[in-house]
Amino acid sequence: MKSKEVLLDIRNLEVQFQMGRKNIFTAVDDVSFQIYKGETFGLVGESGSGKTTIGRAIIRINEVSHGEIIFDGKKISGKISRDLDKEVTKNIQMIFQDPMASLNERAKVDYIVSEGLYNLKNYTSEEERKEKVANALLDVGLLPEFASRFPHEFSGGQRQRIGIARALIMEPKFIIADEPISALDVSIRAQVLNLLLELQKKKNFTYLFIAHDLSIVRYIADRVAVIHKGKIVELAETEQLFTNPIHPYTKSLLSAIPYPDPIKEKNKKILVYKPNLIEKSEENWVEIEQGHFVLINE
Fold it and tell me: How far apart are CA 29 and CA 19, in angstroms?
């Protein structure tokens, strides 16, 4: 971790969705955490846990029901000015899970990568725009000539690189990577992860890395928060979390990580998380050791 300066501060975040006329579903329930400049913060949980909802709330796709999102010292949740909205669009970018679904199949790569530039008019001439596109493609390991092609002409890994270039061209301070490798072939995943790490070193990005695979998070993240049914149940530095997991849900996730050794894999015991059937009245966010927090039922 390069510094302790807070870039993103999420305070008591709640996101709710209307389910029919009367029912309200709480997807994110009283979530608080901070992300420091220059770090990679991992957010881990199973499908439906609320991790993507948090990412979409940060980039203002999902409306916040309660709480605040503070970015670079400014509140960006709720109603904000048009200038601040433009600032958020420029400084916070998202890399989506499915590289096929997130790219416009009818548009050429040149337009796809330039979308943010067009929206914010963030270029002075057509020559400058084309140069920015060429540089963004080179940064992600693609040739500038690829700008004249369509997404269907590329492999899954190349399409994800185009998605990364689209985020990169805005020169953001903060990138939300929403399961950026889960839709890719196993052989390509390491390449994309290494690319993200290289870009972070080169351009000092801050990442929120959303995933369901803890082994990948261990490789890339400085700190990890584990989310279950809309609540953060444990937060710690990555190695702390792996060597000393406290919450039963964290232990169950760790027990599901496959071993490369077939004998070890055969003999391992997978822990099944069984939350208390009776809801306890009090929940406390406790610091077990320095920087290691756990949600404990009283």
Answer: 16
List Cα–Cα distances, 109 to 113, 114, 136, 198, in angstroms. 6, 8, 11, 22
Token representation of residue 3: 């510094």
Per DSSP, the three-state class of 249 is helix
208 phi, psi to nearest 5 deg: -105, 110
Q: How confident is the model at residue 1 (pLDDT cuts 50, 70, 90)?
A: very low
Nearest to 209 by CA among 184, 177, 173: 177
Element (H, E) at 67: strand 66-71
Q: Which domains does the chain have, with CATH numbers?
A: 6-297 (3.40.50.300)
- Partnered with residue 170 across adjacent β-strands are none
pLDDT at 89 over 50: yes
pLDDT tens profile 28-46: 999 999 999 999 999 999 8
pLDDT at 277 over 60: no
Lowest mean pLDDT of 42-46, 57-61, 184-188, 292-296, name the range. 184-188
DSSP string, 139-171: HTT--GGGGGS-GGGS-HHHHHHHHHHHHHTT-
- Distance, in Å, from the CA atom of 242 to the CA atom of 251, rounded to the nearest integer, reads 9
Q: Where do we find the tokens 């608080």?
A: 32
